[in-house]
Structures are given as structure tokens and as C-alpha cells.
Amino acid sequence: MDQVVNEVHGTESVAAGGGLPLLAASSVPEAARALLRCLAACGVQAGAVVWQAGDRVACEPATAELPAPCPPMVGALLSLMGASGHVLHANEGGPQAALWAPPQALARLTPEQAEMFRWCARRLGELLTLQHLQASVQHLEQSRQLQQALFAIADLASSDHDMDSMLRSLHEIVGKLMYARNFFIALYDRQRDSLRFIYFADEVDEAMYDPEQEIPTEQLKESFTLAIIRQARSVRGPAWEVARQLGIVRGPVVGTPAVDFMGVPMRRGAEVAGAIAVQSYREGMGYTESDSAVLGFVAEHVLTALERKHGRQALEQRVLERTRELAQANQQLLAQVAERERAAHLQATLYRIAALANGQESDDQFYRSLHAAVGELINAENFYIALVSDDGSTLHFPYCVDVAGEGGQTRRMARGLSEYVIRQGQTQLVDTSRLEQLCASGEVEIQSQTGTTATVCWLGAPLLGARGVMGVVTVQSYRPDLMFDEQDAALLTFVSHQIATSVQRRQQAEALHALNSELEQRVQRRTRELRQEIAMREQVEARLQHEVMHDPLTGLPNRVYLRDRLERALAAHRRDPQRGFALLYLDVDRFKLFNDSLGHQAGDMVLREVARRLLQCVRTPDVAARLSGDEFAILLEDGQQPATACKIAQRIQACMQEMVQVDERSLRLSVSIGIAVGRAQHRTIDELLHDADVALYRAKEGGRQRFVLFDDREQRAAMDVLQVEHELRDALQAGQLVPYFQPIVRLADGQVVGYETLVRWQHPERGLLGPAHFLPIAEQTGLIESVDWHLYGLACEAGAPLVRDGGFLTLNVSARHFANADFDRALLALLRRTGFEPARLHIEVTESTLLGDPAAVAAILQRLKDAGVGTALDDFGTGYSSLGHVHRFPLSMIKIDRSFTGELDNAQPSRSVAIIDAVLSLGRALDLDVVAEGVETDVQRQVLLAMGCVYGQGYHFGRPAPAEHWGCRTA
Question: Which of 501, 695, 727, 793 lies 20 to 30 A from 783 at CA?
């Protein structure tokens, strides 16, 4: 820089004209103005200095007229300027600058002025580079802030904050990215056509919306928010400009107009679920295009966070409701248990009273025991038993306990309370007022009642014997704080019967000994039942809690428990990707066979044995669970994946090899296992379960008794199957499936004797497709019957002219058709509808079709034969090739499989020749036509002809083609 300054001082008027101010400039516009003044001092009148400013071209002076339209790059602008442009600074991929001035004007500069001009251009380039670097640093800082904001939003969704706290935190995060003093979030309910402003912060219209209020869109016709959601577009600018962009003719009428407004839609795929907006009421506090892009990016993550939060709140609410239900059930069970305990206690007391009659203790001990038993049910501090003499004249008291020291002495029958109970024969509850009433009516006369020992409450129950009332059992209170009630009366009444029985038994001990023995046996049985019921009630709560999370058959955790553990494992994996886990999805091979052949009880034994062996193969904290039926799952949370999962799968396969004894049979078990390793792309546990299920399906498809790791390519292949299924359904509607015909000829002279109908798909994008591309999927998805019937109708219509003068037409029939007993009637109805002669038709079936339900298939084929329709056994020799099939079923033709015909070109085709010769002999013996398929060379034709084969079919005679092709050829 010192060198530059010295050289500048060496110039004449250049320094005074602006050289030094340019070197001191701190911005590009200042440097451009200084350069223009410097050139003016040198006598050069330049039009403008232009430079690259971000994604546009800036110039000095700002009023300079640039070519219209002005390109965004300086290089493109120079090409428009032509000879008028002079490069000041060029940097590929970076900032550029140019001088807009006549080249001849610069040529007049003196060497000193030219040198000064170069130094000025270099200084301008340095400022441009500095400006570019500052912009890059600012952009990186904005990216860092945006990334931190997105991480914070994601953390909020899984935090324990309530919704209000979460929304306030979202507001703070957005406020760190841009000016957001005025910020709101609105959610749109498409079904209800309404908006809800779940968060609204505005320094002017503070209480404009209630977060809990749902607003119909009819009330928000002129709202920016509704227009943003309806039009699914982002807007930015002053209120009047936003209204113009959104097509709101009358202008914004909802809320206070903002100086600058910015709103973006929140999208869920192609659907708009709401909007986020910020606005400013202050001049100079506005928003840029970059702010709009940031807010739009943040909106997607905010919507995801809100939906996850709503989902979590909904789950917590369901858990809370379920917990409340379980608590209510628990209270009911506790009440029932308490009632059972009370009943059990009462029963136990009654049994103890009954058992006293058979004891060997004295009468005093007997009555003391009665007193103690009654005292366990009601307060019996004052208790006595009175018995009537045999002649009914006296009342004696074999037992009496009274704090006042009264009673207990034998007396003549009078009008006391005891005698009143005996006369009435019913339990009597007497308080002070009732006693006064009885005394006033003359029913009762009390001889001894003092002020300190007056009875406050008296309760007596009659002792009913075989000849009527034999006595009374009584409790009484002298204290106001001890009062008896109707429940006590009912208890004492209930107990009195047992007391009376016990007293009678003691009086008649010898006569009632046998009855007492029988009663004791009944008591023991009832006691055991009550104890069992009580134990069962005590176990109900624990059992209910266990059953909610466990499988009742195997005792393993169930699907609910497994999903909870999977959720926690997935959350832990998100927090720490190094914590790997894997899910093994298991299915018992041939379980349906065990169930159907041995019964459900045997199937349950198999499931329990599988569960026991699975538990032997896992360790804590791994989880083995039964999901449903014969499906099990194992969650592995320790060890390197997928190596650990594969090792466990091998251990399970080996453990299952041991024979299991079910009733009198020994069975060998095996399982198929699908393994899915937890990965970052698993957003939900359902996705992980789906991947494991797909892998299990591949394992079973590959032959069972194996394990398969999930592969994304398998998922894509499954999606391809779905795509083909969808397109195949459309093809049936659009008539894209067409019949092709391949001739069947007489080998001797090549004369066509018939045609086999084959299906082709005229795909609008992939061209003509053979059956191998779609028939397996049609079989798998159940579309094969629709495809076949569509083809049969077209074949009969198009193939009728081919066999009008002789010959036959063959149709390939899938085994699925024979599951319908009306197949023959449906086929004959089709022939009548199309006008095709049944005698000109043969159907082709495989040996596997015959084995499905032999009796039903034979009946259908016989009815078709009676109607004139023949049957050809296709691919003979590749299946069971049983003579019973040929003999049992009404066949008219056998078709030798192409695998045998293709070997006739070999030097020593002895094996194939022997098989073909056997089939030909069989055909001649049973008077069946024999057709050799796959004849592709003349050598094969000659060999077959020499062996006595009459008919053949294959590419040597013609490839499959539309009916028009063979019709033209016939003509």
C-alpha cells in the first residue's frame, strides 16, 4: 500500500482528482465514485462503473441507464456494451466489475495516469472480493442459525412441554431468525372448513383471536391467512401489496394493516394444513426474499412438530383414560373383595357358633364362646341369653354379662322386654322413645331403671326352635355414644338362628350328632369355596394388569407391550444412532396344518412350546412377544446389528429342531424369521414392523425354515407388484388384454388342426407383454379369474372364424376356476352368448389342477364333455404323471411338455425319447390325441413323426399372433 501511495503522489492532477479518496474508500460504491472523479480529473468522461452485487448488477451513478433488459451478470452486460465496456476486475465464479466508457478516451491517458487507473481498478477489485467474502460469511451464519432452529423445533416435538409452552418456544426460535414480534400460527380443518389460530402474538391486535376458538372460513373471507391457505402460496410486502397479490379486491379488512407482512403455507405433501405469518408495524423493519425462504422451510418442520405433539397428547389422553378406567375397575374390585371378606367373616362366625354345639367344653365355656363370636359382629359389652322353660312359666338366664350388674337371675314370665320379643316372635330394636311408647301402651313394664344404669338402646332377637320361640339373645347399651341400628338388628337376627340351633344341638347332642357331622362337611366345602373366591378376587387386579400386557396362552408379552418397548428403542436410537437395535418377526411354519390335523388344543401346545424355546434363546433386556396367532417377535437392544440378530436367528432355528411331543405324535418345529434393523429412516414403529413383516414374507416365500434380512430392494419390488396390479386392473377396463393364437398342426403335412389361445398385454408404455410379465401377479392378487373370463370372451369371438371350417380352439383354465362348482355352466353360457360351438372347444388343465379336489373337478369335466367340450392335460410329464389321472378324468388329449421335446436335438436323448414313447403308447391305449409342445426345429419334427406322434405345436410351425394374422394366412 505504501508503494501505491507513493506512486499516486507522483501523478499530477490525478491524486487531487480522486486517487487518494479511492484508496481510502471502504465500500464499492465509494470506490466507484472516487474512480469516476479521478477519471474526470484526467479528462475522461466515463458513463458508469458497473459491478456484480449478489444476483444482480449494480452501477454508479445509480441513475445511469443500463441496457434493457439488464442481465444479472457483468460478463453478459459487457457483451451488450460491446466496445463501450472495459473490464476493471474479472473473477470466474466471483464478483466482476467494468467501466462503461469509450475505449479511445482511455487511450489518451498518460503513462502515469494509466498506471494510476490500473491501481484504482485493483483497489476496486479488492473491495469487491471483500464484499463477496462478507456476504458468504453472512450466508453461512444464516445457515447455521437455521439449522439450530430446525434442531430446536425437532426437540420441542419430543419434549415434555405442554402445547402453550411449545408454541411460545417456537415463537422464540422464529424470532432468532427474523423480526417476529408479531407472529401467529393458524391450522386449517378441511373437513370442517374452519381455521383455528393456535398461537397469536401481536403488539397491536393483541387479543384478536382465541387459540381455542374454531372460526368458520365464512367469517374470514378477506383474511390474508385464509387466502394463503386456499391459494397455497407465499406472500411478502406491504398490506396493500399482499392484498393485490392474493386478489383481495377490497383490501385487508381483518386486523390492523401492516407496514410489511410475510406469510407462508404449511404443507403436508400436496395438502395445505395451515399457515405461518409474521408482520411489522415499524418502518425499516421489513422482510426479504431470504426471510421468506427461511420461513417457508421452517413452516414444514413446525407442522411436523405440531402433528407429533398432537399425536403424543392424544396418546397420553388415551393412556390417562385407560388408567382412569382401570382405577375405577380396581375400586369396584376392592369393594367386592371387602364385601366378600365381610360375608366370609360373617359366615366364619356363624360356622364357629354352629361348631360350638359339637364341642366338649362346659356350658359356661360354650356361652362365653357364643358371646365372643357375637362380639366380633356387633358391640356386645352387655349381652345375655334367656331361655323359656319347657312349661313356659319361667325365664332363666344361662349366660349374662352386664356392666350394671343387673339380670342373670331366673324369674317368672312377666312383661319385660325379653318377654315382649318372645311374644312377638320378631327382633325388636328399642331406644328410649320406643321404650316409653311400649310402657305407655302396657306392652312392657320395667321394674328396675335407675338414673345411672337406664337402658339407652336395647336389641333383642328371638331364638326360634322346633316348637316356636325358645328364648331370646340380647345386647344393650347404657351409653348414648353406643347405639344399635337396623344393620345390627339384621346381624343379630341372622346370628340368633344359629345360636338357637347351637343351643338345641347341645340339648339334643346325641340325636343331632349325625346332622352335625353332615353340617360340618358342608361347612368345610363352603369354607374352601369362599377361600378360593377370596383368593381369586385378590388375584383379579394383578391378573388384569398382566393380561393387558401379556398373552394369556404363552405368558409372553403381547403386541401392546412390544410396541411400547419399540417406541422407546426407536426414541433412544434417534438420540444416539450408535445404539442399534433389531426386530425379529417370526412365524411358525405349517402351523395351520398342525391346527387343522391335530386340533386347536395341539396347536396351543405347539405355541407354548415355541414360546418356551424362544425364551431360552434371548437374554435380558431382550423381549420375546407373541403378536397374534402363530406370529412372534423378538426385540434385540444389545450388540452389533445385524450380526447379533443373525446369530440369535441361527440359535432359534437350531433350538426349534428338537422334536416336540404333542399327544402321541412327535413333531419337528421350524420357524421363518424376518429381520429389520432399526435405522434413521424409520420414523414410526409401524414402518419398522412393516419392514420386518416384508422380510418374513420373503423368508416364507423362499422355502421356510430360514431367516431373511430386510432389503430396500424387496420393498421396491413389492411396490412394483402393486403397480402392476393397479395397471392390470386398468388394462381390463381399457381392453388392453388381447388374445393371441398359436397353431397346432399335423406333423406329417403341417396342416393346421387347431389353435391354442394365449394372452398378451398391449401395454400403452411398455409395449406388448407376454404372460410371464403379469400372470404370476394376477394369480397372486386374485385377478386371474377376471383376466381369464375377459380372454375367453375375446377368444371365442376372434377365434370362431379360424375353426369355422374345422379344427378346434383350446383355452388354458386356472385351478382357481374349479373352486366354483358352476364353472361349467358359466363357460357354456359364454359359448352360447358368443355363438361358439362347444364341439370346437378344448380346455387345457394341469395335473395340479386335477389334484385340488379330484371328485369335484371330475364332475365338472364330465359335464363339459357331455356338452361337447373336450379336455387336454397340459404339461404332461412334469408333474405327478399318474396313470390314475389319465384314467380317472374324462380327457380327450394329452400335451407333452416342451422340456422333453427340446432334448430331441441332442446326440443321445434316450431319456426324453423313452418318456415320449411311453406317453404316445398311453395315448394310443386310451384313444387320446397326443400333441408335442415346443417343436422348434425340423429335426425334432422328424423324430416325433418317426415315433408315431401325430400332432405338434411350437415356433417351428408359427409363433403366437392375432387372429387376423392366421385368417389372412388361411385366405
Answer: 695
